[in-house]
Each structure stands twice: as structure tokens, then as C-alpha cells.
Amino acid sequence: MGMKKSDKSVTLMDVAKRAGVGVGTASRVLNKDPRVKESTKQAVHQAMADLNYKPNSVARGLKTGMSKTFGVIVSDITSSFFSKIIKGIEATSAENQYSFMMANTDMNPDKVTDAIRLMGEKMVEGIFMLGEIVTVDIIEQLERMDIPVVLVSMNIPMIGKGLPKNFASVSINNERAAFCAVDYMCSIGCRKIAMLMTDMDDQNVGKARYDGYRKALKAHGIQHEDCLVISGDLSMESGYDCMKRLLDDGIVPDAVFAASDYAAFGAMRLLHERKIRIPEDISVIGFDGVEQGKYSYPSLTTINQPRYQMGKVGMQLMMDMIQKKEILNREVLLQYEFNERESCLKKAEDTGNQG
């Protein structure tokens, strides 16, 4: 006869796994939800007995079967890009008397996995994923949670079959927005346009922005050059380093499209250090619309994402799924804005010698 686990080490996720159900279903059994089938209740109670599981005080206090809590997993909690989204989530969650717990992952898949597990143990009713690069294993882990998941400003193209049934997403059309930015650069006479992007293997928003860049060049009859595309990440440090690598290789573009405002700020810093004028020598466009772009020198032309609205719409999707309302569109695309500022300048036309 096998020994039972210590009740201190057993989690609701262990119970759910042994019973062959999702964590959300096990939680509903624990809270005496009348909608759960009798056979499912018996399986969960048997698993609890087998594992010597003792519900914690939070679970015992859930009279309605609802924790009124959800989780927010964010790739960089220090980023003002995500803080605006979180404000939108918070505003709508307060209206619905919900609170949330947050986890910062630094784009580390192991931290994402740990955060999901912890939130499952805390019996959150849903999880927001903000800007993460997720693996198939993480998607499967979220599917097993059997609770609503809302993706904000991210894609999961590796699924290849649309969103899983318990998922919804809110974002912008990143490819079209990137096309808009590079199309503008071409329209003001730029022809040697560099792109500072994320890693080439990034299947998240980075790939969509790169595709938009390529399509805009093609639309203007400009040959794509691999040497003008520098991979890094979306940080200021990376933007600085990518711009340095470009110039140190003897490549001087007439425009730079950065896949984030922060990368653009880093590139602009390097250009200032090299005494290269913005926008007279090189025009720069960022992506995201963070507040600092209004006050950089020069002020940054950018694609402005409706971040606060993303948070509010994402929270409404979450509430609709929690309340099991019919959702006609689980993949919401919001409208972006193109903010033209001081970092771009129309190139003087080369009229040739007139004498």
C-alpha cells in the first residue's frame, strides 16, 4: 500500500491531475458548485482522500465558488508600456469587485511555468498574459488549468489552429502597423531603412512587425538587405547595441525603424554620441507610443498602441468568459495611431547638376 502525501505538499493541481479533471473543475467541486456532475464530484473527493488533501482557508471561505481574483503574468513589470495596460485591467476589475495577483517573468519560460502553477494553487479565476513569448508546453499548461486566459499584445502562432477554447486575445494588427511606419519612411524619401528587431526566431509580435517592414519595402520597389536588419530585444540597451553594431560595420542607413520605442531611444542615444543628426542625417521611428517619446530629443515618431483600452477590453473579455457569456470575437484587434513627431524629416530631392 502506497503512503499518502503529506497534506502540506499536496496542491489542488495534484488533486485535479489524479482525478483527471482541470483545476477549475476541482475548485468547483471543492466549493459545492451544483453544476458539476456527480461522477466528477466523486472522482475529485476520492482524489482528495487518496492524497490526504486539506483545503486551505481561502478555499474554505469561497462560499460562492468564486475567488474574485485573477492573475497577471507580465514579461517586464518595469515597462511603462505594460503599466498602462495594467491600469486598464485594474480600472475594469475594480468595477467588478475583482482583485489580482501579479508575476514578473523577464521573458523566462521557467518563471512563466512557475507563475502559472502558483496561480493555479491560489485558485485564480482567470489569467492575463502580457507580452510573453510562450512555448507549446506553456500553452498546454494553461489549457489544463480549465480557466479563462486572455493574451494582451502577444501572439501564439505556434498553435496553428486558432486560439484554444479557453483563450481570448486583444492586440493590434502588428504587421499592418509596421507597414504603416515603413511606408511613411519610404514616402519621405528614405531608401536605406534599417530595422532593429527581436530575435529572428521570435514568433510573437516581432515576426509580424518584421513582415510589415519587408512588405513596405517591396511595395516601394526597395530591395531588402539582410545587413540592415539587426536582431536584439525591445530594450534601450539592445537598441543602443544594435545601432552600434550597424555603424561599426560601416553601414549608415538614412532611416531606422525600431520594433519598440525603448529600442529607438537606445539607438538615438548612440546616434547622438556619434554626432549623427536626427532627423537630418537619419530618421527614426519607434513602436508602442510610450509617454517618454513625447519628451525625447527629438520627440519620437511612433506607432501608438491603445494600451489602456487593451487592458479594459481584455478585462471585459475575461469577465464574459468567467460568466460564460457568448463571445462572438475572441481575437480582438484594436486600432493603432501613427504619431508623427520630430524624429523624421523628408529627404531633399536629388535634382542633379543644373549648371
What can you see in these coordinates?
- There is one protein chain.
- With 355 residues, this protein is of the alpha/beta class.
- Helix content is 41%, strand content 16%.
- It is built from twelve helices and twelve strands.
- The strands form two sheets. A six-stranded parallel beta sheet has the order 2-1-3-4-5-11, sandwiched between helices. Strands 7-6-8-9-10-12 form a six-stranded mixed beta sheet, with helices on both faces.
- It is elongated, with a radius of gyration of 24 Å.
- Residues 1-7, 59-63 and 351-355 have low confidence and may be disordered.
Spell out the key features of this protein.
single chain, 355 residues, alpha/beta, 434 Repressor (Amino-terminal Domain), Rossmann fold, 3 domains, six-stranded parallel sheet, six-stranded mixed sheet, 12 strands, elongated, disordered N terminus, disordered C terminus
